[in-house]
Amino acid sequence: MKHICYIVAMQAEAQPFIEEYNMEEIPGFFAPYPFRLYQTSIGGCRLSVVLNGQQHGTDLVGCEAASITTMAALQRLTPDLVINSGTCGAFKADGAAIADVYIGNAVMFHDRRVPGDDQWGTQALGNYPLWQNSESLAAELGFKMGKVTTGSSLDMQPIDEEIIRRNGGQLKDMEAAAIAFVCSLAHVPLLLVKSVTDLCDGGEKTYDEFCRNLSAASHALRGANQRIVKHLTGKN
Ligand code: SAH
User: Is residue 73 within 8 Å of residue 5, measured between CB atoms?
Assistant: First the structure.
């Protein structure tokens, strides 16, 4: 593997990892877009972290930003593997706890409701392919696995919950399926690494719980990603 590219929505999610590896920012690489690039090299493997950057004074989260950032990163950096590392909501009923780290073993959208025949429903859900070695990596490194489910909102409306349950969604985020969509079009493998900031069935307000646990989940992501990078680059 010669080039691994992380796509991360929020600076806070990536910062512990960027600092751990002493990564250097390449200013203006994606100008005029606000995406930010950090790079380093590990044993002959280039490691990039691409952040969506900001608009309206906040980090760009969600599918639109994730899609265009991923497309730009694929075109400009031509990585061998994309890793989307980020936070998510999860379900107590599935045994999830705050700051647990999961590897995605499937990915779908839960808020694209397109009535019609089976093909339209299939396109709406997405169910994109992920890197074929995702499950063996998770097993070797001892990570839990789950199906990532993406939508454009932090909250979960009853219709979202219904679609998530019907389709086996477990890890609720706002970017993974959009990144998987672009990677699937370009035939670039994608690994999903998700850490839990909030419990969708925990009864607490998601935003408060997310804010309280963002730092713990981001530090858990750093530890997990260090182990993943070591595993991947050790196999060079
Ligand atoms: N208002 C927050 C915005 C963060 S949005 C802030 O300013 O800090 C939440 C981010 O974390 C998204 O990038 C999403 O991928 C992830 N996330 C964490 N928990 C989530 C949940 N329960 N549902 C959807 N996305 C979640």
Answer: yes
Cβ-count burial of 94 within 10 angstroms (0-12 exposed, 13-18 middle, 19+ buried)? Answer: middle
* pLDDT per 10-residue tile (average), the chain, 236 residues: 97 97 97 98 96 98 98 98 98 98 98 87 95 98 98 97 97 98 98 98 96 98 97 78
Six-digit token string for 111: 């808020």
Per DSSP, 44 falls in state T
Structural domains of the chain sorted by starting position, each given as residue range(s) with its CATH number in brackets: 3-233 (3.40.50.1580)
**13 counts as catalytic:** yes
Closest residue by Cα to atom 17, ligand 1, is 88
CA–CA distance, 103 with 170 (Å, rounded to integer): 11
HSE value, Cβ hemisphere, 13 Å, CA-based, for 176: 37
Q: Which atom of ligand 1 is nearest to the CA of 59?
A: 7
Three-class SS of residue 210?
helix
Round to whole Å and give the CA distance between 34 and 59.
Answer: 10
Name every protein residue with a CB atom under 6 angstroms from any ligand 1 atom.
9-10, 58, 61, 86-89, 154, 172-175, 197-198, 200, 206, 210
CA of 206 to the centre of ligand 1 (A): 9
d(CA 75, CA 77): 6
